[in-house]
Amino acid sequence: MKKVKLLCIGLLSISTIYAQDISDALRYSQSNIQGSARFRALSGAFGALGGDMSAVNLNPASSAVFSQSHASFSVGNTEMNNNTNYFGGLGSINDSNFDLTQGGASFVFKNTNNNSPWRKFSIGVAYDRTNNHDDSWFAVGTNTNSNNFNNTIGSYFFDYANGLRLDEISAFPNESLEQAYFNIGTDLGFANQQGFLGFESFILDPEVDADDNTSYLLNVAEGNFNHDYTYLSTGYNGKIGVNIAAQYGDDLYIGANFNSHFIDYDRSTLLFESNNNVGSLITDVEFENNLSTRGTGFSFQLGAILKLSEEFRIGATYDSPTWYTIEEETSQFLGTIREENDVPFAQNINPQVTNIYPSYRLQTPARLTGSAAYVFAKKGLISFDYSRKDYGATKLRPDNDFSVLNADISNVLTVADTYRLGGEYKHKQFSFRGGYRFEESPYTDGVTIGDLTGFSLGFGYNFGNTRLDITYDQWERTDETPLYNIGLIDTATIDRQNSNITLTLGFNI
Asked: Does the first or last residue of the chain, that is N or C, have fewer Cβ atoms within 10 Å of its Cβ?
């Protein structure tokens, strides 16, 4: 397979070079509750508690709460249920995966100088999976939303091609379609490639058959279109953090994390469209898109926990932005069937080309978390966390290339608050836990990605130096997801339910 590097060309607009959109920026800015079973059992409400390796991921002061060195490892099984509704057509997918979600250790060093207010120090390292990108859904239905042909995939190619010269979206004489796709990507970029696909597949015709033509016609007639759309993604966000923390006096714990992040994400979408509208030259379209994303980044966290009394404690954490460097590759396939004089003709454009985009930088928004907890001696506890994150502050760099997209992000995304509540009751060596969480939508409209609600139930047994915990947690949300961000932007309603079973082995070192 050939590889074409889409290089930045000074006077071209960003849409001709990059294929990023708001959903890409948001995907790597979000995190979900992962980590240890005890952490998940309290729905992540651990900011004022500490004493858990995944709590260190939330508030770096947490490791100083350990009375001795501690390590834990967690595995989990995730089950996804996605139910879709697309113009009355229903779809359902159930899938599951099993993986390592957390692992790490904190080493505690007590200060032997009794005259010093610094009671102990801790140093640790931990791996946490911060988001799981494994997802699949499909939308099947007859799109009846006829509005200037926006209910056909043809509008996707039309919106890209309109305004571009015909000789910049078509093959030269004696040039193969595969070679033309490669050359157009090299010289002109993504938008011209999409226009090329639309023109050479006969979805588009120029208004005037001349090299300088910039206006196009759709070879589909207005009406209804049958759609069968499949979405499949795999991958995850993860981070490895180095933690340092200390206890000052009897009541104050402070700490910092220095985190190395990584992104591993692959996505494939496939659309089949058909119509029998009177006057349509194009009756069937198959359009496949593949995306591969890899990225690395850095962030830091600062946190503190203060014991106001033996029972009541509060916590605060600042999560810096994560500064990512991201690289992306795409590939495409387009096939059409056209009818001329009642005779069908097939046209397949399979370039066997991987588009390699210029690396870009992503700055995710910072987050502030406030926490409070009440501990009932050795019988149990209640804990509450509140977090605030302004997704509209997400930025892609360099600024000159992404000024339009960054403006769209600030308008479309908004501040989202998260509320987490957890509790634990202990009886001898047994612990019984539960939690609830609510996360607001990061979108201004509140529906592109809906609010999230979740609950958790857990159980633990303390063997002394070793602890075994198991938790079941579940969350639900409803999204209104557009099939494409340009042209065919009609949405599929997706009711998402995610269930997890997590097992953690923790032990003192």
From this structure: N
Q: Kindly write down the DSSP assignment for every residue of 97-154, as one continuous string.
A: EEEEEEEEEEEEEE---TTSSEEEEEEEEEEEEEEE--EEEEEEEEE---STTTTSTH
What are the pLDDT digits (tens) for 268-325? 999 999 999 999 999 999 999 999 999 999 999 999 999 999 899 999 999 999 999 9
Computed from CA positions of residues 137, 140, 144, 146, in that sequence, does the dihedral angle turn out positive or negative?
A: positive
Provide the strand spans (E) within 249-366: 252-274, 282-307, 312-319, 323-340, 343-349, 353-356, 360-363
DSSP string covering 29-83: T-----S-HHHHHTTT--TTT--SHHHHHH-GGGGGG-SS-EEEEEEEEEEEEEE
- Nearest residue to 63 via CA among 260, 300, 241: 241
CA distance 387 to 122: 25
DSSP string, 462-490: E-SSEEEEEEEEEEEEEEEEES-SSS---
340 occurs within a structural domain: no
Residue 339 covered by a domain:
no
The whole-angstrom separation of Cα 22 and Cα 14 is 14
Q: Residue 412 is inside which H or E element, if any?
A: helix 399-412
Residue 493, domain member (yes or no): yes
The SS3 of residue 193 is helix
Total domains present in the chain:
1
Q: For residue 60, is the peptide bond before it cis, meaning its omega torsion is within 30 degrees of 0? A: no
Positive/negative CA dihedral, 161, 204, 355, 24: positive
Cα 255 to Cα 243: distance, rounded to the nearest angstrom: 7
| Domain at 135, CATH number | 2.40.160.60
Q: CA torsion, points 400, 402, 405, 411, in degrees to nearest 10? A: -60
Q: Is 346 exposed, middle or buried (0-12, 13-18, 19+ CB in 10 A)?
A: exposed
Range of the domain at 377: 2-144+218-262+285-328+361-508
Distance CA 189, CA 200 (A): 16
pTM to 2 decimal places = 0.90
Q: Which residue has the tokens 């009177």?
A: 278
Strands 118-132 and 89-110: antiparallel
Residue where the block lists tokens 């608050």: 417
pLDDT digits (tens, 9 = 90+) for 200-249: 999 999 999 999 999 999 999 999 999 999 999 999 999 999 999 999 99
- Rounded Cα distance between 413 and 488, Å, is 21
Phi-psi region of 483 (alpha: psi -120 to 50; beta: other; left: phi over 0): alpha
In a domain, 433, yes or no: yes
Q: Answer for the pair 324, 285: CB distance below 8 angstroms, yes or no.
A: no
In one letter, which amino acid is 291? L
Q: How far is Cα 310 from Cα 377, in angstroms, rounded to an integer?
A: 8
Question: Which phi and psi (to 5°) does residue 61 adopt?
Answer: -70, -10
